[in-house]
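Marked as duplicate of an earlier ticket. Keeping the data here for the record.
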Amino acid sequence: MRKLFGTDGVRGEANTEPMTAETCLKLAMATALQFKRGEHRHSVVIGKDTRLSGYLIEPALTAGFIAMGMDVTLLGPVPTPAVAMLTRSLRADLGVMISASHNPYQDNGIKLFGPDGFKLSDEVEQAIEARMVQPFASDLAGSADLGRAARLDDAAGRYIEHAKASFAKHLRLDGLRIALDCANGAAYKVAPKVLWELGAEVIATGIAPNGTNINENCGALHPDNLRATVLENRCHIGIALDGDADRLLLVDEQGNIINGDQVLALIATAWQRRHKLQGQGIVGTVMSNLGLERHLEAQGLSLVRTAVGDRYVVEQMRAGASNVGGESSGHVVLTDYATTGDGIVAALQVLAELVEQGRPASAVCRVFVPVPQVLKNVHYTKGQQPLEAAEVKAAIAAAEASLAGKGRVLVRKSGTEPVIRVMVEADAPDAAADMIVDAIRKQAGITA
């Protein structure tokens, strides 16, 4: 079992375990050992978002890689998909993104990419953890073999051109007014430029990071500001990214939220029409809405479900030769263009459909009628195991029985924080969800 790595890399509160300088140093050293193969000069690229703690974690990782003889290329603040892309483009042996994605600034995390630009498997992460508890003295580089560090000044520009290349060459965004919320995160510079250079009028917010305001009442998790911007400025569509821009949320011209399932349905349908869709369907997760599955079936397509986490989606996409996959939370993976979720590239595919169809976002982006779904989070104290209690298991069974086979129940632990997520999907899901939540809260000792 992995102890350090969670659903999406390593994550925690900055300057407390595991996100301390000491642990980050050891993680870099262990990862370098895992990826050093052959006698060539090994290299790693490191990007980050705009969190204050990036100034702590970046040099710790850099020192660890240099100590093991790996050269380090520092990218500065760039989206997670830019790190994945540049890992391949620069022929690096490893890519690192310092980010806690949608979490508040107090948290930070480390996402690792192999030389192919894909996130690491559970097995590789386990191997890295095993190396971290071993002594490093005999593996340190000699004085003459230490790595070097340098900054790549045009990292953002390279990614901008890469993102623009995913947009159909015969199309332009001229005449579109787009509201854009960059969450004061990693895409605060690149996202507005991508849209503006393709011809759009861009009304951007969340572009003034100060180290502590990333995701603060903005971005994909807080769409109210985006909705207000869309309505006040009569925008054709709104786009919200999260802190590292690997996911998105959309708002149509009427202020309605468009989640990742609708984006997946739109792209899958459009790509099928153009004979571009591979794998006879798409890949989603256990959280993907039943309405998406029914829509795809009506189109002769399948939905393959995985565990929650975009890297599990990508693993299944690679196994099944699919080129479209993602999560309802807004991670959309299009392997024709990226090896991980890319909110900007996914948004461009939606914008291309708006231009092609010449219809408003409210018509283009509502592809299917979702089955009502309620998602509730229950926080618990670390060390507790409320899901093991007989009372909770009985409540889950009773909730499932109450749906009489006409809905879905999913109860799972978060992979990044001490939270149990309860999802019920049915015509009337609230009563079944409350039944489970009440039982979990009781076991967790929550009375208020």
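See parent ticket for discussion. The domain at 260-340 is CATH 3.40.120.10 (Alpha-D-Glucose-1,6-Bisphosphate; Chain A, domain 3).
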